[in-house]
C-alpha cells in the first residue's frame, strides 16, 4: 500500500527501528526491493535520485513505484532523494511521490532554511512529507582529512533552529558516513546522534549507509536513526550477479536471463538490510 513518508518515519520513530530507503533506477530494482519487503514484512521507502530520474524518466519511476506500492501488502513510500531543483520537486509532487528530500545543505544555514521552508510549505499543502539535510554528507572519494570531515558534521544547536524554522518531517544528519564504497571502516559519531535525537525527538536519516558495519548500523538505530539510505550495495549486488552470469554463460544473450539473477541477488542483500535495520516484522495492515 502506498503511504506518505511521514507515516512510515513516524511509525519507525515511535517504535524504535529504521526503515530502509533503497535507490531505484530500473524495474528489476523496484521488484527486488518490494519482494524483500514482502518477505520480511517490512515497511519500505523506494527512492529515486535526480540521476535516477534522468536515466529512467520521472514518469517511469513514478508509475513503476506506484504499481509496486499498490500491489504490495506492506507500507511503501515513494521519495525523491537529494532534490536540489524546485521544478523537479514540483514534478515529483505532480507524479504522486509521497515524500521529497530538499537538499540545500551546500548553502549557508540561513539560505538552507529559506529554501527548505519554501518546499515544506508547498509539499505539506498537498500532504507530502519532506526530508532535508543539515551538515554535509560527502562522497567517500572526497579527498579530505578527518578534521575537515568533522567540520562538516551536523551541529545540534543549528539542527534545533533548522527544524523549528522549516517545519520539516525528517532530518538527514552528517555524522561520519559518506556516499559510495568505503576504503577503510567508517567511524560514526554516535554521541552526536544521541544528542541530536534527544534535542529534536523526531525521525533522523542516515545517508551513505552501504558498507557501514552491522554493529555500527545497529548502534545508530538504537540511538534514534529511523531511515537508512542504501544505494551502493544494490549496485554492487547487481554487478556481481551480472558479471558472474555472463562469465559463466558467455553464449546467453537473453536480457531476462542475464538480469534475472541480478534481481535475486539484490533482493537477498536488501532483505538482509531490513533485518539489520530492525524494520522486519514492522509492516502494519
Ligand atoms: O546519494 C546518492 C545516491 O547514491 C544516488 O546516486 O546520483 O548516482 O543516482 P546517483
Ligand atoms: P550509499 O550509496 O553509500 O549507500 O548512499 C546512499 C544514499 O545516501 C542515497 O541518498
Ligand atoms: Zn544520500
What's the structural blueprint in terms of helices and strands?
Layout: H1 5-15, E1 19-23, H2 27-40, E2 44-49, H3 50-56, H4 58-70, E3 76-83, H5 86-94, E4 99-102, H6 109-125, E5 129-134, H7 146-150, H8 156-166, E6 170-173, H9 190-200, E7 204-206, H10 214-222, E8 225-230, H11 232-248, H12 255-276
Parallel strand pairs: 1-2, 1-8, 2-3, 3-4, 4-5, 5-6, 6-7, 7-8
How would you sum up this structure, described in words?
- The chain has 285 residues and is α/β, with parallel strands linked by helices.
- The chain has a single domain, classed as TIM Barrel (Alpha-Beta Barrel), CATH 3.20.20.70.
- The chain is built from 12 helices and 8 strands.
- The protein has helices at 5-15, 27-40, 50-56, 58-70, 86-94, 109-125, 146-150, 156-166, 190-200, 214-222, 232-248, 255-276; strands at 19-23, 44-49, 76-83, 99-102, 129-134, 170-173, 204-206, 225-230.
- It has an 8-stranded parallel β-barrel, surrounded by 10 helices.
- β1, α2 and β2 form a beta-alpha-beta unit.
- α8 (156-166) runs parallel beside α9.
- It is globular.
- Residues 23, 49, 51-52, 81-82, 179, 231 line the site of glyceraldehyde-3-phosphate.
- Glyceraldehyde-3-phosphate (G3H) is lined by residues 23, 49, 51-52, 81-82, 179, 231.
Describe this structure in a few short sentences.
This protein is α/β, with parallel strands linked by helices. The protein is 51% helix and 15% strand.
Question: How is the main sheet built?
Answer: 8 strands, parallel, barrel
Radius of gyration: 18 Å
Mean of all residue-level pLDDT scores: 97
Number of domains: 1
Query: Based on the structure given, which CATH architecture is correct?
Result: Alpha-Beta Barrel
Distance from N terminus to C terminus (CA atoms, Å) equals: 9 Å
Helix content: 40-55%
- Topology order in helix (H) and strand (E) letters: HEHEHHEHEHEHHEHEHEHH
Strand content: 5-15%
Number of strands: 8
The CATH superfamily is known as: Aldolase class I
Q: Please give the CATH class.
A: Alpha Beta
In the CATH scheme, what's the topology name? TIM Barrel
Question: Could you give the order of strands across the largest sheet?
Answer: 1-2-3-4-5-6-7-8
Amino acid at each position: 500500500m502506498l503511504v506518505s513518508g511521514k507515516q512510515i518515519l513516524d511509525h519507525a520513530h515511535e517504535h524504535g527501528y529504521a526503515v530502509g530507503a533503497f535507490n531505484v533506477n530500473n524495474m528489476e530494482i523496484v521488484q527486488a526491493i518490494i519482494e524483500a519487503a514482502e518477505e520480511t514484512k517490512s515497511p519500505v521507502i523506494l527512492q529515486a535520485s535526480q540521476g535516477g530520474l534522468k536515466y529512467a524518466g520521472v514518469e517511469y519511476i513514478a508509475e513503476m513505484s506506484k504499481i509496486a506500492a499498490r500491489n504490495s501488502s506492506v507500507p511503501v513510500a515513494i521519495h525523491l532523494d537529494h532534490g536540489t531543483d524546485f521544478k523537479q520537486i514540483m514534478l515529483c509532487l505532480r507524479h504522486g511521490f509521497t515524500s521529497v528530500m530538499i537538499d540545500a545543505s551546500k548553502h549557508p544555514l540561513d539560505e538552507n532554511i529559506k529554501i527548505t521552508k519554501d518546499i515544506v510549505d508547498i509539499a505539506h499543502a498537498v500532504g507530502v512529507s519532506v526530508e532535508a539535510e543539515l551538515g554535509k554528507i560527502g562522497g567517500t572519494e572526497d579527498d579530505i582529512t578527518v578534521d575537515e570531515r568533522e567540520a562538516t558534521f551536523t551541529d545540534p544547536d543549528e539542527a534545533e533552529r533548522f527544524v523549528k524554522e522549516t517545519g520539516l518531517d525528517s532530518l538527514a544528519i552528517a555524522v561520519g558516513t559518506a556516499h559510495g564504497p568505503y576504503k577503510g571502516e567508517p567511524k560514526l559519531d554516535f554521541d552526536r546522534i544521541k544528542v541530536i535525537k534527544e534535542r529534536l525527538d523526531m525521525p533522523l536519516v542516515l545517508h551513505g549507509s552501504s558498507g557501514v558495519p552491522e554493529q555500527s548500523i545497529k548502534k545508530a538505530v538504537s540511538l534514534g536513526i529511523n531511515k537508512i539510505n542504501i544505494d551502493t550495495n544494490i549496485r554492487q549486488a547487481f554487478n556481481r550477479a551480472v558479471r558472474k552470469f555472463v562469465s559463466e554463460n558467455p553464449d546467453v544473450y537473453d536480457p531476462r536471463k542475464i538480469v534475472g539473477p541480478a534481481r535475486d541477488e539484490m533482493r537477498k542483500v536488501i532483505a538482509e538490510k531490513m533485518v539489520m535495520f530492525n524494520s522486519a516484522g514492522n509492516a502494519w495492515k
